[in-house]
TrEMBL record:
Gene3D superfamilies for this protein: Glycogen Phosphorylase B (3.40.50.2000)
GO MF annotations, alphabetized: glycosyltransferase activity
Glycosyl transferase family domain residues: 211-387
Name this polypeptide is given: Glycosyl transferase
Transferase among keywords: yes
Length: 778
């Protein structure tokens, strides 16, 4: 629907405009035919908060629901510091964990787009910089509404908006000036920019006498200003214009509607309002001002706007790119007198309203008197305003918004989000009060295979690493997995058991050497990373009890796992001598393995390749770092670079050692490829990157992470960000459709680590995709 024919002077148009149900039905029918159902996560301040962006966010939600019910809009309201943010979707503006939880919730919801309302003052951190990490965590395409685009920003303000612009799939602005500024100063691409003027109500024209009567204002000439009161509104200028207006039109009443800005009230109470009242008394115009000290709901605001003849916006600042109440006033057919701030200049062009110089009471008085002196000129301006407002009525606004959602939600041809936080539904579905089940048939847990220590040790490490979950939830599951590890310990043999049946009976008295090593690693990781002192104390106690019993275990991977756990303890407790001895022993043994097996073209610790291969290099590198053995680090990096080469295809994508290769001398067979190997490659490369800063390691980690999302030999997408599930690997026929514990944990832990790498680079292209120095095809 491009236009609605009308004649503002005719009663025929009044009848058509009143038929709101017809318009809504038409738009609903059109929307239902044009696009599949979509889900949008809408982030911004929201009612009942008193601010213009909260009103805009609420309007956007309500009008999409009214005119495009096929779009489900989930609101994630930003809450001020003094407002409880206890609902899953509420975001406490100054709490980083709250942003992380909301991002995870958005990803789990399967949102097709994140629509973010940006203003510097509503997000946490200096200039609201917490918004940057938040958008990085969300997988869905970003729609960005820029409510303020500064022409002279500070360095940090520029960096924040540039960060958002580079990640946005679509950007909405409400003024041409903002659009051009984003292109010229912030590097925005024109093809992602859309100008959508602020929406406005669709009400009949010329009903001010009826609404004046409702307010007891019959016979008065009514001026009005609405908004949160503060020095930036220029109300002093308007009040000083009243004596000259009253001298010509003594029936004038200036209605100042709106509460004092809550931030101003918190700082100085009602001192500002009282200063305006004092000014009115000094000028002798008190009887010509009516104060309504409330922040009005939209319908009551519209009723009060209808009762006015002229709407005043005497703002002294000229950079304001949008004003919702200005849009409302124009759409209701009010004559507007305004200073030439950005939105007013564009909306009131072509004599839709009257612009006056900032700070000039005389100019305001002259403009008001000219209109009241000539009722026909006043009526003509009101009609022009009403006609202009037809371009911004809610059905049109909602239609443009729906098209923006559809454009943003269309799938990108390729690319991987390296910063999105996966959901946890798939992980929790594999867990019960005993622990994490090993296997699944498709996505359904398979109880026939019970549990194992390996997976529950990894699950405990995931609890140590996860961001964006409630402390109580973290503790609940940490206790489940810790209890499994504790129960797996067999003190009679001095070793851990591994496999447990679903009925909680152990299948064995002792597990494999590698499962024992991984349990030690999980204990050391908990000592290093848990923020619960009691859990740290438990982990350290069991670790110190277990470690001497494992001294005789000498397989390369077992040594590597134990060394990784001991390195974690040393990073938190550098004086822990038992760990130091353990790391020394493991490092010397790994160096011995490397020396004995190395030959031309084979720079590896074993004569065969198996699983979790990069862990050997990672353990040697971490051991060298904590003990200051630079030679160990050099050898670790050389061996890691060698295995990276083995696990990179000729076309440049990650090709992990397949399980068919395990135990085959000097062979690398491509299938079956398993997520555990990608995780090991990512985490080992992350350690190398932290030690050297060499972007080769960053790029390799990103390449291995892209493997989860289709950058593999079969183009199989294994990971699902919404649920956090991961398929069990790549076979010659494509993805193994089962989603077992090992695969889910490998993906979740890989995500935790890749985020730490990306956080140190911030090199981005379209959306929130990292730009590796080596091309990665997805």
């Amino acid at each position: 629907m491009n236009s609605i024919p009308f004649d503002v002077a005719s009663s025929h148009f009044h009848a058509a405009a009143d038929d709101g149900d017809t318009v809504r039905s038409l738009y609903a029918a059109l929307s239902s035919r044009s696009a599949p159902p979509r889900r949008v996560a809408l982030v911004g301040t929201y009612r009942p908060r008193m601010c213009g962006i909260a009103t805009f966010t609420a309007d956007l939600h309500d009008k999409l629901a009214e005119f495009h019910p096929d779009i489900t809009v989930d609101v994630y309201p930003l809450c001020a510091a003094d407002t409880p943010a206890d609902a899953p979707r509420h975001i406490a503006e100054a709490d980083p964990d709250s942003y992380a939880r909301a991002a995870r919730h958005i990803n789990e919801s399967g949102a097709d787009a994140l629509w973010l309302q940006h203003e510097y003052g509503i997000f946490g951190g200096p200039d609201g910089e917490m918004v940057c990490d938040f958008v990085d965590r969300v997988a869905a395409p970003l729609i960005l509404t820029c409510h303020t685009v500064l022409s002279h920003p500070s360095e940090r303000q520029r960096a924040i908006l540039h960060h958002l612009v580079t990640r946005a799939s679509q950007i909405m602005v409400m003024s041409s000036h903002s659009l051009e500024l984003l292109v010229a100063q912030y590097g925005a691409r024109r093809e992602v920019l859309t100008l959508i003027e602020h929406g406005a109500p669709d009400r009949p024209f010329g009903r001010q006498d009826d609404f004046k009567a409702n307010l007891g204002l019959s016979g008065r000439k009514v001026l009005m200003t609405f908004g949160l009161l503060g020095p930036g509104k220029g109300l002093e200028t308007a009040i000083r214009a009243l004596p000259a207006i009253i001298a010509r039109h003594p029936e004038v009443l200036y209605r100042i509607v709106g509460a004092t800005h809550p931030n101003l009230v918190a700082q100085e109470g009602e001192a500002y309002r009282e200063s305006l009242e004092a000014l009115a008394r000094e000028l002798g115009v008190t009887r010509h001002i009516q104060w309504d000290n409330r922040f009005l709901e939209t319908e009551e605001l519209l009723d009060q706007l209808e009762a006015s003849d002229i709407y005043l916006t005497p703002y002294p600042g000229l950079q304001q790119s949008t004003s919702g109440t200005l849009s409302y006033a124009v759409a209701l057919g009010k004559a507007v007198i305004s200073t030439p701030y950005l939105h007013a200049r564009e909306l009131l062009a072509n004599d839709v309203g009257r612009l006056v110089e900032p700070g000039s009471s005389a100019a305001i008085a002259a403009a008001v008197n000219a209109l009241f002196d000539d009722p026909q000129a006043l009526l003509a301006m009101q009609r022009r305003a009403y006609r202009r407002g037809r371009e911004t009525i809610w059905p049109r606004f909602a239609g443009a918004a729906a098209r923006l959602v559809e454009t943003a939600a269309a799938p990108a041809p390729n690319g991987v989000s390296y910063t999105a936080t996966p959901g946890l539904r798939g992980f929790y579905a594999m867990c019960d009060a005993t622990g994490m089940l090993q296997h699944a048939i498709g996505i359904v847990p398979d109880r026939n295979h019970g549990y194992c220590l390996d997976d529950n040790a990894r699950a405990l490490m995931l609890m140590n690493a996860l961001e964006g979950i409630e402390p109580a939830e973290r503790m609940r599951w940490s206790m489940v997995f810790s209890a499994f590890v504790q129960h797996a310990w067999n003190p009679d043999l001095g070793l851990f058991r591994n496999f447990m049946r679903f009925d909680r009976g152990w299948c064995e008295d002792m597990g494999s050497q590698d499962s024992n090593g991984r349990a030690v690693w999980a204990l050391g990781d908990t000592v290093e990373r848990s923020d619960d002192p009691d859990l740290v104390a438990w982990a350290l106690q069991l670790y110190e009890r277990v470690l001497p019993s494992l001294a005789g275990l000498e397989s390369p991977r077992t040594l590597a796992f134990v060394a990784l756990g001991a390195c974690g303890v040393l990073r938190r407790r550098p004086d822990h001598e038992l760990s130091r001895e353990c790391v020394r022993h493991a490092g010397e043994a790994l160096m011995g393995f490397l020396e004995s097996q190395r030959r031309p073209g084979w720079h590896w610790f074993e004569s065969v390749l198996a699983y979790d291969n990069p862990r050997l290099s990672q353990a040697l590198a971490e051991a060298g770092a904590v003990l200051g053995e630079s030679g160990w680090i050099d050898e670790a990096l050389a061996s890691l670079r060698w295995i990276c080469g083995i696990q990179t295809s000729a076309s440049g994508h990650f090709r992990p050692i397949g399980s068919e290769t395990f135990g085959q001398p000097e062979t690398a067979m491509p299938f079956d490829q398993q997520p555990l190997e990608a995780q090991a490659a990512i985490e080992a490369a992350a350690v190398a990157y932290e030690l050297t800063g060499d972007v080769f390691w960053r790029d390799h980690a990103c390449m291995a992470y892209a493997w989860f999302f289709g950058a593999n030999d079969r183009g199989a997408v294994l990971a699902d960000l919404a649920t956090g599930r991961c398929r069990d690997g790549v076979t010659p026929r494509g993805a193994n459709l089962n989603c077992g514990a090992e695969s889910i944990l490998a993906f979740q832990l890989s995500n935790c680590r890749i985020r730490s790498i990306v956080a140190t680079t911030r090199t981005v292209t379209e959306g929130n995709r990292l730009e590796p120095t080596r091309e990665v095809s997805v």
